[in-house]
Amino acid sequence: MRFRLHPMVVILITALLFSALAVAQGGAATAKPGSTSSGQEGTPPPATSNEQAPPEAPAKPVLSGPYPVMSKAAEDHGRQVFQMFNHAEGAQMWALLVEPLKQRTKSEANYTEYNKKLHEKMGPETQMLEENIVPYIFAPDTVYSRLSNFQNVPVPVMTMITINQRGQIDAMSIQPVASVAEGKFAGYSGKNNLHLPFNNEWLVYQGGRNLFDNGYAVNDDTRFSLDFVYLKDGRMFSGAGGVGSKVEEYYCFGQPVVSPADGKVVKAEGGYDDNPPGKPSGDPADGNVVSVVFGSGETTETATINHLKQNSLKVKIGDEVKQGQELAECGNSGSGPIPHLHFQLLRGGGNPVPALFTNYIADGKPVDSGEPKRGQMVKNNPAAAPSASSTSSTPPPAGK
Asked: Is-contact 252 330, C-beta < 8 A?
């Protein structure tokens, strides 16, 4: 985020029939508001991007209801909506659409007919490969994402359903997911024992090797990057969030950012303004940034953390820092659409490499060494050493 606004993670308010038609026609496009098709992070989108306009949020955000953000009820409801689509139950889905989507699809008959035709072209789901939930970055909604194989589609398909707290569908996107080449560092093994760059437990918003888990995977310069957000009661912010809200309403804003390993500060910029949510500035994309180099010779790696809070730097270029030492505070400078922590590991001449973290907890389970994935809740393990029962988290195969 560089929290990039990938068309997948940050689902734009798009009528199902538009994105559905793109899939039915065999395209790998993601629809933008008001259009029938357009190219994009034809993959899960990162929550930020310089190239895209900020996505719309619901005209009337739903602040409470029986499907709280990131709740099991919301997750289960997302699965139910998917099965409605999978069984061509267009009328049931129409009843759940928020009014703006109903207006875009013109009529229940029109919507139902398009869903029927799409289902006939795709066939039924034959295998569910992955699923996860994350909060929507501009409204108090839950985004349910599902990667599936369908009978008549030669590549995996990602379905993303944005559910508000009343259980209504605020957005839905269906899109084929092509495999991506991971480059020469696909088999890279971390050279240093990295800890997660924050205190407490955070959500992985972008992380993983494929486009379903990580919209950054599609670009050479951002590959293997991660985005983390801090939640309270499953939500990213107080109030309605989105454009018109304040950065202080996002729980990430002002949270401490710490060094992942012992090292030396080689870059430190802290004077750029923090953007209002949904309104990235014209400042350099990184905004306020800190880079720490650690290791030596063949083990040299550099961790870069950007979009930091204005005037929050606790270090300067040349400082020697310890693992866990506070570097700055989380902010929303540069190209950031919302406050979040963007992390990238580099080596050599600035080549992105996978960040392998050690001794952390993912969704309540100890991990000796692994790469955090989208949808996981992660935190550093307070134990001095990993236990014998620890599990290892390995990256998924390329293009899964």
From this structure: yes
Contact indicator for 206, 216 with CB cutoff of 8 Å: yes
- CA–CA gap between residue 180 and residue 186 (Å, rounded): 11
How is residue 270 written in tokens?
């802290």
CB hemisphere CA count around 99 (13 angstroms): 4
pLDDT computed for residue 181 by the predictor: 79
Q: How many CB atoms lie within 10 A of CB 124?
A: 12
- At 220 the pLDDT is 86
What is the reported pLDDT for 387? Answer: 37
User: What domains lie within the chain, and their CATH numbers?
Assistant: 16-176 (3.10.450.590), 202-380 (2.70.70.10)
pTM for this predicted structure: 0.84
Mean pLDDT by runs of 10 across the 400 residues of the chain is 34 33 32 26 35 52 96 98 96 95 91 92 96 96 97 96 97 89 80 94 96 91 95 96 94 98 97 94 94 91 97 98 98 95 90 94 96 97 53 40
Q: Tell me which DSSP letter residue 26 carries.
A: T
pLDDT for res 37:
24
- Could you give the CA distance from residue 385 to residue 358 in angstroms, rounded to a whole number? 10
DSSP string, 33-97: TT-S------SPPPB--SSSPPPP--SS----SSS-TT-HHHHHHHHHHHHHHHTT-HHHHHHHB
First to last CA, the chain: 23
Greatest C-alpha distance within the chain: 66
d(CA 58, CA 140): 10
Q: For position 58, what pLDDT does the model report?
A: 65
Burial of 50 (0-12, 13-18, 19+ CB in 10 A): middle
Half-sphere exposure of 223 (CA within 13 A, CB side): 21
Q: Spell out a b/e string for 347-365, using b for 16 or more CB atoms within 10 Å of the CB, else e.
A: beeebbbbbbbbbbbbeee
Question: Rg of the chain's alpha carbons, rounded to an integer?
Answer: 21
